[in-house]
């Protein structure tokens, strides 16, 4: 047995795939409601835009399981958070609010340099951890339970707080693509420290995605398209295979409408994002019609079967 074969066998012994899954095996894992996929629309920064999105999606005969705000909780007023939580309840969708403190809004200049940008949105110093927790506690008091997390240490702390009853037990944490994870070992680590879903890097290839699915039970959040700032690519034709090999999945759709991750979307932008969901749904119905869409309102965030 060669050294590389020994390495692959060891990876297998600790619950990881031996390599990327070029055979693209079908995933038998599902959401607890039996579904293989759900729709998520990111970049919805306030209640007026959220309402326009939900109405437009409804007009297409579709529904969402997630609406995600990306600018940060600290950019929202109490009234805006309450209204977004109310809309989520009314439309039976999950509201995900982004934790506000991040490297790009901190006082360090490093993240704005060519090399420093690699730190992503991670937090610098314990005070930023404290502030991130305060963001979550504030939004939870106002009715939100879903949170977008950018820092692995912050994720671990929030999971500890959830277990200890310091924040509501039904809070759930989604790890952003901005954390930069793209392999099965990283996904497994994130799941082990509290992630309820993981968003890998946007350009992850199918064989890599299939391998990641073998390593974790939690849902994976996959960009079907992207803003120009993160590549601008549109992967609609790949969606049927994404679902088959990596279910359960959240299909993050509508990003190509925006220029950047934190784009201040208008109501018209929201309607354009809704149209993108319709286009993706057509791809699924054409090329993988047997794929199971989670029923409307089935918002359990428990990890897959």
Low-confidence stretches: none
Global morphology: globular
Alpha-beta content class: alpha/beta
What is the architecture at the second tier of CATH? Alpha-Beta Barrel
Biggest sheet architecture: 8 strands, parallel
Could you tell me the mean pLDDT? 94
Overall tally of structural domains: 1
Q: What is the string of helix and strand elements?
A: HEHEHEHEHEHEHEHEH
Strand ordering within the main sheet: 6-5-4-3-2-1-8-7
Protein name: Peptidase
Organism: Sporofaciens musculi
Keywords:
305 residues; alpha/beta; TIM Barrel; eight-stranded parallel β-sheet; 8 strands; 37% helix; globular
Describe the structure.
The chain has a single domain (23-287), classed as TIM Barrel (Alpha-Beta Barrel). 47% of the residues are buried. It contains nine helices and eight strands. The two termini are 35 Å apart. Helix 2 packs parallel to helix 9 (267-287) and helix 6 (184-192) runs parallel beside helix 7 (206-215). The longest helix is centred in the C-terminal third of the chain and has 21 residues, at 267-287. An eight-stranded parallel beta sheet has the order 6-5-4-3-2-1-8-7. With 305 residues, it is of the alpha/beta class. The mean pLDDT is 94. It is 37% helix and 10% strand. The protein has helices spanning 3-13, 47-59, 78-90, 126-141, 152-164, 184-192, 206-215, 239-246, 267-287; strands at residues 37-41, 66-68, 94-98, 146-149, 172-175, 197-198, 220-223, 249-252.
């Amino acid at each position: 047995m060669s050294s590389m074969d020994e390495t692959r066998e060891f990876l297998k012994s600790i619950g990881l795939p031996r390599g990327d899954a070029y055979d693209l095996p079908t995933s038998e894992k599902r959401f607890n409601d039996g579904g293989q996929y759900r729709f998520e629309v990111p970049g919805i920064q306030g209640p007026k835009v959220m309402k326009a999105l939900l109405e437009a999606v409804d007009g297409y005969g579709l529904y969402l399981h997630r609406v995600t705000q990306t600018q940060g909780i600290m950019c929202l007023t109490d009234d805006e958070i309450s209204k977004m939580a109310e809309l989520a309840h009314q439309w039976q969708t999950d509201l995900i609010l982004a934790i506000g403190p991040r490297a790009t809004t901190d006082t360090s200049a490093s993240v704005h340099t060519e090399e420093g940008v690699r730190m992503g949105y991670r937090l610098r110093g314990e005070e930023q951890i404290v502030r991130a927790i305060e963001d979550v506690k504030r939004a939870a008091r106002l009715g939100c339970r879903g949170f977008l997390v950018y820092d692995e240490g912050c994720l671990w702390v929030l999971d500890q707080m959830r277990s200890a009853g310091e924040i509501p037990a039904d809070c759930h944490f989604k790890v952003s693509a901005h954390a930069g994870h793209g392999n099965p070992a990283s996904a497994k680590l994130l799941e082990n420290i509290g992630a309820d879903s993981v968003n890998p890097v946007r350009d992850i290839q199918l064989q890599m995605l299939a391998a990641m699915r073998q390593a974790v039970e939690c849902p994976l959040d996959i960009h079907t398209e992207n803003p120009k700032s993160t590549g601008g690519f549109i992967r609609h034709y790949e969606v049927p295979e994404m679902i088959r090999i990596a279910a359960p999945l959240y299909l993050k759709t509508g990003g190509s409408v925006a220029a950047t991750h934190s784009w201040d979307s208008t109501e018209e932008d929201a309607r354009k994002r809704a149209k993108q969901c319709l286009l993706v749904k057509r791809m699924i119905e054409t090329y993988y019609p047997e794929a199971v869409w989670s029923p409307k309102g089935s918002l359990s965030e428990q990890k897959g079967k």
